[in-house]
Design brief:
Helix Hairpins; DnaJ_domain; ATPase activator activity; DPH_MB_dom; Microbial ribonuclease fold; 35% helix; alpha+beta; three-stranded antiparallel beta sheet; three-stranded mixed beta sheet; 2 domains
Length: 179
């Protein structure tokens, strides 16, 4: 099941960890910024995998849409999707390590001034040396350098990105559709 579909202006569509070409752009809604996934699962960052799993199961049961009344269904479904997204990332050791590094970087970067807000669709897919296993997306900085995102950054919704040449920082605005 693909939870997030992102369309770039060059008609490339990013689904999970796959990039496919489509003939037209799709209108999608704006998402929130990168979230603390440990907070969503009500765990500490140092929690063991089994503790994360227990917390996920408890929260998934609590917020499952089939267990809610009609008036609570919309908010609980949104929370269920957030809990499921957090578990999908934190249950994979490789993605968890990338998330931990990205979250630490984001927390440090919050003190930096944001020069611009850029939609994810403004990034251009390109080739990057040394990163053959995942696609790379670039947004040109006004200094001539690049703001760079990898596929895993997009999966994690990394929203504060520094230029690779200067100190300018942008906030990335993501678009999303629930499938």
């Amino acid at each position: 099941m693909v939870l997030h579909t992102i369309t770039f202006r060059n008609n490339a569509v990013f689904e999970g960890l796959k990039v496919a070409r489509y003939p037209k752009n799709i209108t999608l809604k704006v998402l929130k910024i990168m979230e603390d996934l440990y907070n969503i699962l009500e765990c500490q960052k140092c929690a063991k995998q089994e503790d994360l799993k227990k917390s996920y199961q408890r929260l998934a049961l609590r917020f499952h849409p089939d267990k809610q009344s009609e008036e609570e269904k919309e908010t609980s479904t949104a929370m269920f999707v957030r809990v499921n997204h957090a578990w999908k990332i934190l249950s994979d050791n490789n993605l968890r390590q990338k998330y931990d590094a990205a979250w630490t970087q984001r927390c440090l970067a919050q003190d930096w001034p944001i020069q611009d807000e850029v939609e994810i669709g403004d990034f251009v897919q390109g080739e990057s040396e040394g990163s053959e296993e995942e696609s790379t997306f670039f947004y040109m900085c006004r200094c001539g350098g690049n703001h760079i995102l990898f596929e895993s950054d997009i999966t994690l919704r990394l929203d504060i990105v520094c230029c690779d040449t200067c100190s300018l920082t942008i906030r990335v605005l993501y678009t999303d559709t629930d499938v």
